[in-house]
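Input record, target 12 of the design panel.
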């Protein structure tokens, strides 16, 4: 029995499989290299963020100052005052208003 043709066919099949694997690996490596280069190009076009030790600059209008004020919550109107029961969309957001008394609260001595 002549097995040379069978061995040649088996070796040709395995060579073809190896070639497919190598070509597939080259395609994957090429795609990864392209993705890294594309990411570097995109990163270069983004605005630069300050690095450690760098300070942001002041706005053109100058430094922003803090304001202190006492706030008190807005009261929810009662059903007796409005004549009907309020629904959630009529309540709105829980807002606050500037308090009439702007003095700082202090601890009373002895309390």
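The sequence produced for target 12 reads:
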């Amino acid at each position: 029995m002549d097995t040379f043709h069978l061995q040649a066919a088996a070796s040709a099949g395995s060579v073809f499989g190896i070639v497919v694997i190598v070509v597939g690996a080259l395609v994957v490596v090429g795609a990864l290299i392209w993705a890294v280069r594309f990411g570097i190009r995109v990163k270069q076009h983004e605005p630069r963020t300050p690095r450690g030790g760098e300070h942001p600059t002041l706005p053109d209008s100058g430094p922003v100052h803090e304001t202190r004020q006492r706030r008190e919550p807005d009261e929810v109107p009662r059903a007796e005052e409005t004549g009907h029961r309020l629904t959630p969309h009529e309540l709105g957001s829980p807002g606050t208003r500037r308090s009439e008394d702007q003095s700082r609260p202090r601890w009373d001595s002895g309390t």
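Residues 4-45 form the longest helix (42 residues).
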